[in-house]
Amino acid sequence: MDLLNRQPQYLGVTHPVSLSYPTPREIHISDLLIQELLRQGTFESEYETRRCEVIIDKFDKLVKELIYNISREKRLSDTNAKEAGGKIFTFGSYKLGVYGTGADIDILCIAPRHITRDDFFYYMHHTLNNFAEVSELSSITDAYVPVINLRFQDIPINLVFARLELAKIPNELEIKENSLLKNLDEICIRSLKGSRDADEILRLVPSLPAFRTSLRCIKLWAKRRAIYSNVMGFFGGVSWAILVARICQLYPNAIAGAIVSRFFRIVYQWKWPHPVLLKPIEDNNPLNFRVWNPKIYHDDLYHLMPIITPSYPSKCATHNVTQFTKKIMEREFGRAVGIMDHIMTGTGKWSDLFAKHNFFGRYRYYLQIIVLSDSSEKHLKWSGRVESRVRYLISKLESIGSLALAHPFAKGFNKIHHCINDQMVKDVMRGVFDSTPINYKNDTELSQNIQDVTDTANIRVIYTTTFYIGLEIESGSRQLDLTWPTQEFIKFVKGWDKYDEKSMGITIRYVKSVELPSEVFDDGEHLLKRTNIRS
Ligand code: ATP
Ligand code: MG
């Protein structure tokens, strides 16, 4: 037998830690977990599942139709235009099988080489704009992965696009082979990567049911503890998925309750910056794309908690983590280890694990970053821009000696203000607006509100998003002066080429815990999910 060429009998970069099968106790704990996840509403209903399938099917048809129409416009014959084809792939949490109510559906649209990115974004945006079922449509063409965000019958959808070096895209097309990436531009490669990663993750976990239940649990926990946000410097969906998949590899026969318990212990004790990998990084690098490698690339050395995406070209999904966000996540891992010990011994409940964070009760002082604009379209872009830069402020705050911790809250609070006089405008700009705003849940409600008020008076509508950073001052420190980092941050974000002084603004101020607006204590019903901008 050829021992050298024999494939390892396990999935992952090391042998499993244990091949044990579940004990009756672990089976019981896992049943309780599923009951709790059901109680918490993390599983979508059959009706929702069906609705998503119908929507995905519509997008598949739409993409094919669009490719046909653009092909005809480019003077392809009817036969060639029909044969041009087109295909969609879902990816992200939907593809991984952990989609839950309120989550987004990520869709990759694949086109043949004669359809450019500009063609696709232009035609898709204009087509969708005419659909009655579509709301909150926005194209973000300058993002790291350009995306069209929308709601279709109120379900959030993210569309990314890649064109392949092929004249036709048949329905049977698969995108697993690295050779398909040859001659593609960087943006297409990034856009394909989400789908290729999802396929790899699914291939690399030993038991899908255990993986899915564990991942649902970890996602719910991370959201409740407000540490679910790639953009703010925590982990995002794919990072949590890879981490859970790695624990599944280490315990290939375990079930969800046991996986989750080990998850917290292992992640808590992980020797960062040792990377989390699901398979060896493909470093023979046939196509010469940049692959995560701290031995070659100096930047990669700065990744504090590297979690590496499995598909070629492998990247670090957690490059946004800062010293402070690492500290916050480690604190949460530690808390969870303690709770899990109680759950496993029967002295604690799963609901303890999912208890809501106490971010707004935890600190005496907060920084409040108020981002404002005078139109909803501009605001979506401007507030998204600031949100994606908050972690730079956090990095700057790390160098302030008297600050033990600057803790960014995972999401911003959106509001619309109908200002009836200049004083109200000034108040909103200073962040004094607790009594004036009208919260909005979606665009329809929003435009209805605007209609109601603008019909009756001369009103200035201002949109705000407020981000919070909790401040923990070093014991013994008496003074805290954050003028320099906050001013620098404002200068930095205003340096954006689309920044318009007349219609946009940003203010940063301190607030004491007793001055926090009441909105921050609700359950976050009105927190709009941000657009999916990666940077
Ligand atoms: P959620 O349930 O929050 O939507 P998700 O896994 O779908 O979780 P998204 O933020 O919607 O996460 O992103 C969709 C996909 O895009 C991810 O699964 C991943 O493949 C890719 N992606 C997003 N952010 C990153 C990142 N920082 N690094 C690598 N890939 C990313
Ligand atoms: Mg998603």
Automatic annotation (TrEMBL):
Using the record's annotation, list all stretches that form the Poly(A) polymerase nucleotidyltransferase domain.
12-205
Which residues does the UniProt record annotate as the domain Poly(A) polymerase RNA-binding?
Answer: 358-526
The record's subcellular locations are: Nucleus
Quote a single Gene Ontology cellular component term: nucleus
What InterPro entries does its record include?
Answer: NT_sf (IPR043519), NuclTrfase_I-like_C (IPR011068), PolA_pol_cen_dom (IPR007012), PolA_pol_NTPase (IPR048840), PolA_pol_RNA-bd_dom (IPR007010), PolyA_polymerase (IPR014492)
GO function term, MF aspect, one: RNA binding
Question: Biological process GO annotation list?
Answer: mRNA processing; RNA 3'-end processing
Q: Which residues bind ATP?
A: 91-93, 104-106, 219, 228, 237-238
Per the UniProt record, one Pfam family is PAP_NTPase
Q: What is its main location?
A: nucleus
Major enzyme class: transferase
**Required cofactor(s):** Mn(2+); Mg(2+)
Q: What does the similarity note say?
A: Belongs to the poly(A) polymerase family.
**Record's protein name:** Poly(A) polymerase
Q: What is the lineage of its organism?
A: Eukaryota, Fungi, Fungi incertae sedis, Mucoromycota, Glomeromycotina
